Amino acid sequence: MLNFEIHEGDVLVPPLKKLSFPILSPSEEGFDSKNIYNAAVIKERDMVVMLYRAEGMDDDITGRIGLALSKDGVEFLRHPEPVIEPEHEYEKRGVEDPRVVKVGGTYYMTYTGYDGKTARLCLATSRNLVTWKKHGPVFEEFPQTGDWTKSGAILPMKMPGGEFKGEYIMYFGDSNIWLAHSKDLIHWEYVEEPVLRPRKGKFDSILVEPGPPAIVTDSGIVLIYNSAGMEGSVRKYKAGIAVFDRETPTRLVARSEKPILEPTHKWEINGWVDNVVFIEGMVEHGGRIYLYYGGADRYIGLAYWE
User: Fold this and answer.
1) Domain interval for residue 155
2) Does the model's pTM come out above 0.85?
3) Based on the structure, what is the number of domains in the chain?
């Protein structure tokens, strides 16, 4: 369980520890030989299953999705081939940035399909994490951003009460964060007004974007989010935490005043895109809460709470 306190609207969590080295780096050859980053994770029995974004040296696309397995959550064995590749027109230039939840016996993956011009939030389902059925873009249109949608973080349980009682919710977006709701996890409707926006003068002043799937605690619905802001003349990606009301998931209860994760190691500062930490996976394993993140859009790093 994630332990935190709320004080005057601020979310206070213990300091994250992080490994000083990437747990996964690009391979010497193949579909993940250029960049490997932005990984989703899910616990299956005693195994941590990772689904990650990968780019090959010989590719002109922005991503395939690979699979890796680990018993300890640190050392991973990679599947030799991607499990999701670009197929359709809406994703012809790349499939990117997965998040995964399990409801019943089905895994639901949100990912970004990129056609070379527009990035769209897409959905796929699986019974085994290897073979996936694609359901296409989540929204036929999204006028708020000219149909540009990304980064869907689903809460894998039905709302017990409130406006969305009996429905699932999802936080999504990569400029502001919006909320969507669904009765079946396949068909979604969005709420027009953002529920989380960038803050002038803070670490998240340029954009905010959902991180791992949302979780419920006694204090509310917890969403770890990624963000970008300026530090002097340098743009840096850092992560924060937002807490929303359990009955009214559009209502923000608290938000971290300081980032919980930021670039400090050389491999987080220099890479394909400099000064980036970007969390997409979270799992409890071996008495720790592990957070898996992309470092400089080239590596996968690991941070944790005891």
Assistant:
1) 5-305
2) yes
3) 1
